[in-house]
Amino acid sequence: MSDAPSAHPYIPNSVPAVRREMLDAIGVGSVDELFGSIPERLRVPGMLDLPEPLRGEYELRRHVMGVLDRNESCAERLSFLGGGCWPHYVPAVCDEIVNRGEFLTAYYGDTYGDHGKMQALFEYASMLGELVECDAVSQPTYDWGAAAATSICMAARLTGRQAALVPASVGAERRSLIEGYCEPWVALETVPFDARTGLLDLDRVRDAMSEQIACVYFEMPGFLGVIETQAEQIAELAREAGAMTVVGVDPISLGVLEAPPRYGADIVCGDIQPLGIHMHYGGGLAGFVASPDSERFVSEYPMFLIGLGTTAVEGEYAFGEVVWDRTSYIQRGDSKEYTGTTQNLFAIAAGAYLALVGPDGLGELGRGIVQRARYAAERLEALRGVRAPVFSAPFFKEFVADFSDTGKTVAEINRALRERGLFGGLDLSGQYPELGQSALFCVTEVHTKTDIDRLADELEEVLR
Amino acid sequence: MTLRPFHQASWNEPILLELSTPGQRGIIPPQIEPELTASGEDPLAGVPEVLRRSRAPQLPECSQPQVLRHYLRLSQETLGNDVNLHLGLGTCTMKYSPKVNEELVRSPKVADLHPSQDDDTVQGMLEVLYRFERMLCEISGLSRFTLQPAGGSQGVYANARMMHAYHAARGNADRDEIITTIFSHPCDGAGPATAGYKVITVYAGDKGYAEPDAIRHAVSERTAGLMITNPEDTGLFNPHIDEIVQIVHDAGGLCHYDQANANGILGITRASDAGFDLCQFNLHKTFSSPHCSMGMPVGACGVTAELAPFLPVPTVEFDGSRYRLEYDRPQSIGKIRAFHGVPATVVRSFAWVLSLGAEGLREVAETAVLNNNYLASRLADVPGVDVSFAETNSAHRLEQIRYTLARLQAQTGVSTLDVARRTADFGVASYFPSHEPWVVPEPMTLEPSESYSRADLDEYAEIIAEVSREAYETPDKVTSSPHDSTVHKMDLEQHDDPERWALTWRGYQRKRGATAGARGAGS
């Protein structure tokens, strides 16, 4: 028993007198008797070696905040980092909703205890379904990479084929996720992108297409920012070969870009982090998968699927798990893919975000982002030795700028920018050496003209 | 004790898409400066017509107060751990998530960090990740941890991948079988299955846990490893666990200890004490981070020094003055989750451990076990409620118990699902019966973590006792429940019927008609 001076605030029954009475009710003399099933040889000798506790909330907050204060956040600095996690404005209402204690501390409650949570999650899927024009939308998976990997595996099971085409323009981070996950099930064949346009090499797609290919996967926009203008032709090539088309999307682009099924996508996936979710050092990511709602497709989803239904009372809605038996909670060692706790709180945020923004707002957002990004590329292109955008294809919110002719490395440039309070573009020289000293710049609705001008002006100084 | 009169909030809130009023706006996006649009040029020039949105997405059009009100009504219709005695969710370790930790992670110093920022600009975050890794090493006895897996299942999957990489590096890729047990979490089978393994499931012996002989029978030269939860869902600690580990090791396999729920053993016994090679802790369970409607999880994976080269990249290193991310790890399995997992959750758990220290952690375990056994003593006299394996194993359970209501069902016709639904009428979320398959008939799994007071436990026991009384006296009241919850009894079959299931509002409208069940715009 602890000899602490006072009861711990998080542990009601740490009061010695209460513990004594509870032990009496159980009929044992000490707490240690309750651990009788753990053999002595397996016991920790003495106490763990951990830091002295900070039992007071003030001391704890001061200590941890003191550590965190060493971080420089994108709220304090002007950042142009994207590449898989992006700075977008988070409406105050989204934060208010996800910080509600009921949502924050709910878990596996069901139809009755957690009706509101289930409804919010169903509504999230419903609104995402409107964006991608799909009747089936999963509850979240871990991130875009997990969503893409699962989509590719689903396509493999649906077609009975074991290979897939993936563009070389998928970033290293996501590629590692997809490759590692698919490795036992689907052989991935890399399709190069055109060095001038940034688009998939269509001839290579055509050549690689065969009866072994389950699907072609591509992104809209891609990791390197490019809008894949040949999307319809790629999907057509896949269809002719009996393969599927899997498209990864940034959902915030879907106010201006077409719903993927309209240009031939069979399965749509992506990440909802842009929709009202803070970046959280990458923790804000959450993946989704969408498809037609048929028994054939739905049976292949590993994730939670929440369904709207009715109750014994006329006109009353209730929610349940759709085809629960397909999940790894039932299938265990016979599972096709595992599932578990993922990122549901962020699905609630994304739903609220889409409801706030609405159809007109999403279009305005998309147009505003493209305009800002284009302006940024123009400003950078005007700098001596800088080429931006590197690719000729249209882009959405990210573009590649090449600094090779400036005689400076991206690392050097970014270090100098950091000293001036800016986080420059993502250094691509490690993962795409063929692009030379290039960086991926991300510009969204959070960037004003003044911000972009400041980036260009500071860059000019740094490159001088 | 008199039970409180209760009725859950029931707003009959329409589906949000039904609340749309054309023209309403919930937020105005940042406006574009006129200079950027002065040229009049179409910003989407170059995008083929076929890729331009042809029909605006059919999102609802709602004002800001309407959206807020809708979601806050839904939050009221949700019984999170902040609101109810959530101890019915056995295996989930529902516990208090300190509010001060929420303040920490809402700070821009956490919320607005980009994962690709230079290490020099995230020294605080890297320090938290580094120091918390050291804490978990001490708590588990293992050498290194990755905090990247974003969930317990993903952690188990990551460990299966590391096992695979370990054997492959030794030229033993033909080891393609993983052994698990029936009372381990389902992901201990599903994770390795996803990684390509054949999974062998060992059933429990008379005592309620896997016997060494059963493991001996399951191992072979094909064995890559064992993935086992202990204490298992039954709350029984397998006292032969080190012998089982030895059997698997002798066969050339590795052993993963599923410590998703380590609430009853913190500071009492460690993965290393039983000889394990790998383990995983769920920070959203044992380590107090909020469960986030099933979100923001971390499955922290620990390994021995021998397995450390296979950890996902990056790891966090410290040279005494500066923290940095290390990507140059040639034997790494690569990425398991994008970037660094869910670091906000690590911040919360770091603060939680700091608030407790070694003695506090031990007190958590002791109190969780005390609470569990106290609740069991209160339920001992409730008709129809029994402890599984009680006849063959008299050992005290640790942090949870799988009860069986088989007797109640046989005597009254009332099932455990009926009882679970009925408890919702008393202000507690329906309890978790059991993972599948139901080896224990008519199961009920309760886990009263350290966060509940004696009075809370008394109240919960009285609710179960009351429903038991009803089952024997007025069974219809239980089988037709809930009566005072947000909604009434739902037919489960509609969610297995392709003609009726509806994953989205558009799907619902297509299958059940545009006006089916609709109440029209209210609010």
What does this structure look like?
The complex is a heterodimer of chains A (464) and B (523). With 464 residues, chain A is α/β, with parallel strands linked by helices. Helices cover 37% and strands 13% of the residues of chain A. Chain A is built from 15 helices and 14 strands. A seven-stranded mixed sheet of chain A has the order 2-8-7-6-5-3-4, sandwiched between helices. In chain A, strands 11-14-13 form a three-stranded antiparallel sheet, with helices on one face. Chain A has a two-stranded parallel ribbon with strand order 1-12. Chain A is globular. Among the domains of chain B are: 102-353, Type I PLP-dependent aspartate aminotransferase-like (Major domain) (Aspartate Aminotransferase, domain 2, 3-Layer(aba) Sandwich), CATH 3.40.640; 366-479, Aspartate Aminotransferase, domain 1, CATH 3.90.1150. Chain B has helices spanning 34-37, 64-76, 99-106, 108-111, 123-140, 152-169, 187-194, 212-218, 241-250, 343-379, 406-412, 416-423, 454-473, 475-479, 505-512, and strands at 144-146, 177-181, 198-202, 223-229, 254-259, 278-282, 299-303, 315-318, 323-326, 386-387, 401-404, 443-446. In chain B, the strands form three sheets. Chain B has a seven-stranded mixed sheet with strand order 1-7-6-5-4-2-3, with helices on both faces. Chain B has a three-stranded antiparallel sheet with strand order 10-11-12, with helices on one face. In chain B, helix 3 packs antiparallel against helix 10 (343-379) and helix 5 packs parallel to helix 10. The longest helix of chain B has 37 residues, at 343-379. Chain B is globular and about 80 Å long. Chain B starts with 33 loop residues before the first helix and ends in an 11-residue tail after the last helix. Classes of the chains: A alpha/beta (464), B alpha/beta (523). The interface between A and B is large, with 219 and 220 residues.
